[in-house]
Write a structure and sequence with these properties.
By secondary structure, this protein is α/β, with parallel strands linked by helices. About 25% of the residues lie in helices and about 25% in strands.
Length: about 270
């Protein structure tokens, strides 16, 4: 039987497990005991530990570490590597291009490396643990950015904010609502890149994050394509906007036409 090698630098590999189960392949986990050693130093050891046969696939999470390890494995085994993977069969892979504006299907012959959104935490039972063989590497300096980091790809609920918010301090309305329902706060591009109201890793869109939560709230977001391609695979979409003609309503399962400054506090109070 074909094997799906799941490279798990973290426990957030639920999406990889789903792909392996859909293919019906035997799962084999490769975990890292890397501590403070960067993934680049472990990459050659991981690549050698993956012993692929015809028909196998290698699944790596769509994270900085995952992409590093995936590239090393692809080079070691002279295998193609696909990113932005949407759908996989034993002989083909559908990938998003240009931030999700278009989808392409490619035929492949195994082995192949697939970069897949990691998703939720799973309890990984290690089949191969890489604890040595890393290059001698030392982190000499760490420059931390201001603000908290986030991993929106694992969030089951996302509250996304847009230009409908007049002032940065008004984002507390969204933060309070998100806290009430157990959601992560995200944004459209202007708030993260133009106004710097939120960190860059919270921007959802064509050149930002791609998410597919169970529930997605779009608050004060117009709904231009450069944003919607980043959330189009979400489960239930709820839109709050004062403009009844906002394009975001085309994506909505539920829509509220109203002033977010009135709607958000009311929703937060009702759900508290």
């Amino acid at each position: 039987m074909s094997v799906a090698w799941i490279i798990a630098p973290t426990q957030q590999v639920g999406g990889l497990v789903e792909v392996a189960d859909e293919l019906g392949y035997t799962k084999k986990f490769v975990t890292l005991a890397q501590g403070e050693v960067p993934a680049e130093a472990y990459a050659p050891a991981v690549a050698k530990a993956v012993e692929v046969s015809e028909g196998d696939v290698i699944l790596v999470p769509n994270t900085q570490e995952g992409r590093v390890l995936g590239g090393a494995i692809a080079a070691q085994h002279n295998a193609p590597i696909f990113t932005q993977v949407k759908k996989v069969t034993p002989t083909s892979v559908q990938v998003a291009r240009y931030g999700g504006v278009s989808l392409y299907t490619f035929e492949y012959s195994s082995p192949v490396v697939l970069v897949v959104d990691g998703g939720a935490d799973v309890d990984v039972a290690s089949d191969v643990e890489i604890s040595d063989g890393a290059y001698d590497a030392t982190v000499t300096d760490v420059e931390k950015s201001e603000g908290s980091s986030s991993n929106l790809s694992t969030a089951s609920r996302v509250v996304a904010v847009g230009r409908g918010f007049a002032k940065e301090e008004d984002l507390k309305l969204a933060e309070d609502f998100a806290s009430t329902i157990g959601a992560e706060v995200a944004s459209s591009r202007p708030l993260a890149e133009g106004l710097d109201w939120l960190p860059r890793d919270r921007y959802i869109g064509i050149s930002g994050q791609t998410v597919k939560p169970d529930v997605y709230f779009a608050i004060g977001i117009s709904g231009q394509m450069h944003h919607t391609v980043g959330m189009q695979d979400s489960g239930t979409v709820v839109v709050i906007n004062s403009d009844e003609h906002a394009l975001m309503f085309d994506m909505a399962d539920y829509g509220i036409v109203g002033d977010l400054y009135e709607v958000l506090p009311a929703l937060t109070k009702a759900l508290a």
